[in-house]
Write a structure and sequence with these properties.
Low-confidence stretches: none
Helix content: 40-55%
Number of strands: 2
Shape: globular
Strand content: 5-15%
Number of helices: 4
Structural class: mainly alpha
Number of domains: 1
Distance between the termini: 28 Å
Strand order of the largest sheet: 1-2
Mean pLDDT: 77
Largest sheet: 2 strands, antiparallel
Order of helices and strands: HHHEEH
Radius of gyration: 13 Å
């Protein structure tokens, strides 16, 4: 796991994909002694991280097809969506 700061640094150097997880396998990182004990992030946190380095946050499927473009989404709207679901 890169960590939040290294992920942003990678994005600023041209990386165009940050992988996400769909289950709770991130526990292995903290068990292995990772600095971040809670490495998971909400969609709002991930979108904010990407926008902070002036990149375009787009959710894609496993075949890299666009699912949702978060470029114009306000983060507070995402947080409300999360609370409602």
């Amino acid at each position: 796991m890169l960590g939040r700061q290294n992920a942003q640094l990678s994005l600023s150097f041209g990386v165009n994909d940050i992988d996400g997880t769909i289950d709770d396998t991130t526990k292995i990182y903290s068990m292995a002694g990772a600095e971040e004990q809670k490495p998971s992030m909400t969609t709002a946190e991930l979108v904010t991280l990407i926008k902070q380095v002036k990149r375009k946050p787009i959710e894609r499927d496993t075949l890299y097809n666009e699912i949702r473009d978060y470029s114009d989404v306000v983060v507070s709207e995402l947080e409300l969506d999360t609370q409602m679901n």
